[in-house]
Amino acid sequence: MVIIGIDPGYAITGYGVVSYERSKFTVLDYGAITTKAHTPFEQRLLTIHQQMDVLMERYHPEVMAIEELFFARNTTTAIGTAQARGVVILSAAEANVPVYEYTPMQIKQAVTGYGRADKNQVSQMVKMLLHLEKMPKPDDVTDALAIAICQAHMGINSAFQAVAGYQYGRYGKKEFDI
Predict the structure, then answer these.
(1) Strand 99-102 relative to strand 63-67: parallel, antiparallel, unpaired?
(2) Which of 15, 31, 75, 144 would you call most buried, defined as having the most Cβ atoms within 10 angstroms of its Cβ?
């Protein structure tokens, strides 16, 4: 199975593409889609979308895994990141690739066996599990690879498919109140 893991952001979107067959990982690609700070925001989103389309076309992933967003303080960053995340999910939808989402704690648990592992522990496990010579940089890339590993370990489970909002679906009401 070919999996693309995504750590979304509007400045840096990390990606990792792995093949997972018979409990063995093969790294196909990893890197970051970056946008410049003073570029108009709509152009930043367009760049992310175009680069995601290239990745979808090149690797034909069977599934995309993406980190759920959680922001306690900076809502400006949260909104921009959510918009970048939406563009990434749109690219998956256009390529007919199902999207699964995981919390940071679920990702850490799947990669290290401990849901409260620190960044260094996660990075070391990513390096070891994927047989990498060095840690990918920036951290967003390592995170994306960790998300792909999480997806491989979780398998195709509809409980983790992306939902249309945290107030609905798996975290609350099942239907919209009209």
Answers:
(1) parallel
(2) 144
pTM value is: 0.90
DSSP β-bridge partners for residue 106: none
Cα-trace Rg, the chain: 16
Q: What is the pLDDT of residues 10-35, one digit of tens each?
A: 999 999 999 999 999 999 999 999 99
φ, ψ of residue 58 to 5 degrees: the values are -70, -40
Q: Do residues 29 and 133 make contact, with C-beta atoms less than 8 angstroms apart?
A: no
Task: Give the residue numbers marked as catalytic.
Answer: 7, 67, 140
d(CA 156, CA 139): 26
Q: E-assigned strands of the chain?
A: 2-7, 12-21, 24-34, 63-67, 99-102
Return the DSSP state at 133: S
Q: Does domain 2-163 have CATH number 3.30.360.10?
A: no
Q: How many C-beta atoms lie closer than 10 Å to residue 106's C-beta?
A: 18
